[in-house]
Amino acid sequence: MKQFLILSLLLVLTTTGCTTERLNNTTSLPEITSIEKMPVKMAFHSSQNKDNFTEIAFKLEHVDDSAINSEDYQLQWPKYILDNEEIAYKVEDVKMSENSLDDEPLNDHELGFTLRLSPAVMKERDKVMLQIPVYVIPRLFEEGYPFNVREPHVDRIVTGDLVIEDLKLEDRVIEFNLIDKHPDHQEQDLSYLFSRVQDNESIYPLFSTIESGSGSSYVKLEFAQSISLPARFSVERTTIEIPEWRFPFSIPVNLE
């Protein structure tokens, strides 16, 4: 009997400890309200209750102020959203706007998204954190990853999940190191098509040299004519689909 009581007490203490740890973990979720993946940035904008639902607004924008189109990015939202106490909210609707967000005008490099959740988040609760995983497919890169060169030597250029380092341009030749951060870059052999973009037309190099190394590839391109600055180039993957980016938002909701 005594052994049974001791065992029961240990089980209660263990269960209580697990519950406390679980609550501590969920209530101390780190805030993730803004995520950037060149050239795009997505950020939590606002939250408000309306009747029996809650509206959550996000802004998607190009950080280089280049124009953004509603077809440039395909966003996939979850059907349900959990908060830090594992209460589920259904995503009833998602509206996209090119003109305004919360009655504020949007510029041509910005898009607004408004989610309608039900049931409404209770105003009486403190420190409500919503976990919202968003998958973003950058459709604007389907025809290649563009990058601009304004100087004959550039240390680093980031475009989407491609990184270009130690770029040198002289006369008809451009050379650089290419780092591909595609999620499947280690599982598949990647090949690329390089071009120069001028007057919306693609100009392909006469000679191309690509040497794969550890973590990067050395690229050397020679064109038929001298390259004047500024110049625009493009890198297109030919053996793999464009990636799907995961933006794991964890946002605080303060309702008044």
From TrEMBL:
* Source organism (scientific name): Salipaludibacillus agaradhaerens (Bacillus agaradhaerens)
Under what name is this protein listed?
A: Lipoprotein
Q: Which PROSITE patterns match?
A: PROKAR_LIPOPROTEIN
Top-rank taxon: Bacteria
